[in-house]
User: Which sequence fits this backbone?
């Protein structure tokens, strides 16, 4: 109940700010918090990235191993994405198998990577019908400061871009990079007081009724979308988020050229 | 095992003879289940969907109760025999995600404040799957909720749009879903507010605008069928016009 009371006070405060065109941390509505990406932070993983987005910290690890392809797609590699909202990251998270929140994060990140065809899965085929590379993307949320999904998506791509396929370990030739073709970027907006705010902080996320995540590619095409939350959006709002997401994604993508 | 058709659209017609903006046939049967407070059976193409609603009823465990409103619970489940290759019974990651976004498609619509401390349970069983099961489930759930007498701001109508052969099409069938270039399920409240939106595949911004517009057309058509089904069952003494039902001026949720 005390949470509910705090939420009401918080909501009023943030609502009044939004009416004035402001946010609590002084950002513009379409402005991201500072994002830092550090790669190769875990030596044991084939690829890894620690993303800090404001207070949010997400660690993504990539493990790869040869395995059997799915019977209906014998000549392409396999991507398996998992997200853990571990209790360390927030007093609200509990131990145990992933619940709908974690599953949704993993599935939306997965969708962006898969549907953009950013990984050339055909090149992950070792022997058709028998052996392909399986790529595990594991998202570990260390601190929930809001907008986990954009941080997780950026971390996954950064980790993939720096990951190796340890072929030598399995007597499959020389080690190589994971064949990457594109950099899909997830951008999330919340709707609050009729306005659209990019990269919601934890407080903003908790009072907003609804968020929309849009994943865009280098050529400006859209490869994934997910509305989440119990408030409707108008068609006009959706179109505006897509425009904002494209611009913001282009800005974030520049960071990856340094990776 | 790759039966990808060479073309999905030949002379402006799709594999099953439909136009690009045409829905598969929809058949609705109201209240087929006796025990549930509300139910609906819906066929959409080869999809066979059963929806049941229980509630408002006491919510267990009690700590999950909300003092100010009813808690909407939504379970989307596929029968193990509903697809060619048997699927393991029980919740999958896919069904958990679909249940979540489907529930959120209804939360803005149901007058939950009328029933504090209760649960409204929506159960969807996909008996036979043929692409578009989540949208079919939502359409059936909408009618089952109405059948249960749950007060709502309006009906939720859903359909999927997608891209095949480089063209934007309405209501993907199985082949189009499996091998198409994009799939975008959308749910709307009559009047055009979006309560569910997902997309995967690859669309340019222009194609996305077109898809969104086509989705609206599709949802409007579905809405008309839902409305007719309700009128047939409950008579048309006081037909409510869709335009009268809006979220504006309705402040109880805030």
Assistant:
């Amino acid at each position: 109940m005390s949470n509910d009371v705090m939420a009401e006070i918080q909501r009023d405060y943030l609502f009044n700010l939004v009416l004035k065109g402001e946010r609590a941390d002084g950002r513009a509505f379409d402005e991201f918090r500072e994002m830092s990406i550090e790669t190769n932070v875990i030596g044991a993983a084939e690829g890894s990235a620690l993303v800090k987005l404001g207070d949010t910290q997400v660690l993504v690890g990539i493990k790869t191993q040869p395995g059997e392809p799915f019977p209906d797609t014998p000549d392409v590699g396999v991507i398996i994405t998992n997200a853990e909202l571990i209790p360390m990251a927030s007093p609200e998270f509990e131990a145990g198998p992933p619940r709908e929140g974690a599953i949704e994060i993993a599935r939306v990140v997965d969708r962006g990577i898969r549907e953009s065809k950013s990984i050339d899965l055909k090149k992950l085929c070792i022997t058709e019908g028998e052996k392909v590379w399986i790529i595990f993307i594991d998202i570990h949320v260390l601190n929930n400061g809001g907008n986990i999904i954009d941080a997780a998506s950026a971390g996954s791509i950064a980790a993939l871009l720096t990951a190796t396929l340890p072929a030598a370990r399995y007597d499959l030739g020389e080690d190589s990079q994971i064949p990457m073709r594109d950099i899909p970027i997830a951008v999330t907006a919340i709707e609050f007081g009729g306005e659209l705010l990019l990269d919601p902080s934890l407080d903003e996320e908790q009072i907003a009724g609804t968020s929309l995540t849009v994943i865009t590619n280098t050529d400006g095409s859209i490869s994934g979308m997910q509305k989440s939350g119990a408030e409707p959006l108008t068609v006009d709002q959706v179109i505006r988020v897509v425009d904002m997401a494209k611009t913001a994604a282009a800005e974030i993508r520049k960071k990856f050229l340094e990776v | 095992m790759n039966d990808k058709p060479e073309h999905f659209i030949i002379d402006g017609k799709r594999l099953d003879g439909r136009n690009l903006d045409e829905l598969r046939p929809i058949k609705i049967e109201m209240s087929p289940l006796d025990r549930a407070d509300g139910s609906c059976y819906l066929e959409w193409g080869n999809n066979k969907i059963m929806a049941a609603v229980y509630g408002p009823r006491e919510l267990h465990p009690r700590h999950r109760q909300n003092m100010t409103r009813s808690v909407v619970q939504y379970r989307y489940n596929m029968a193990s025999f509903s697809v060619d290759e048997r699927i393991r019974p029980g919740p999958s990651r896919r069904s958990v995600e679909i249940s979540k976004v489907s529930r959120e498609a209804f939360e803005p619509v149901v007058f939950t404040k009328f029933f504090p401390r209760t649960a409204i349970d929506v159960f969807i069983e996909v008996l036979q799957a043929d692409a578009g099961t989540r949208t079919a489930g939502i359409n059936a759930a909408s009618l089952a909720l109405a059948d249960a007498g749950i007060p709502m701001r309006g009906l939720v109508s859903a359909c999927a749009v997608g891209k095949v052969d480089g063209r934007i099409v309405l209501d993907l069938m199985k082949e189009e879903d499996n091998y198409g270039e994009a799939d975008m399920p959308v749910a709307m409240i009559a009047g055009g507010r979006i309560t569910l939106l997902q997309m995967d595949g690859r669309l340019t911004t222009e194609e996305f605008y077109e898809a969104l517009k086509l989705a609206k057309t599709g949802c409007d058509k579905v809405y008309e069928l839902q409305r007719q089904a309700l009128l047939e069952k409950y008579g048309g003494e006081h037909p409510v016009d869709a335009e009268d039902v809006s979220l504006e001026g309705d402040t109880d949720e805030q």
User: Anything to note?
Assistant: Chain B has one domain: 16-236.
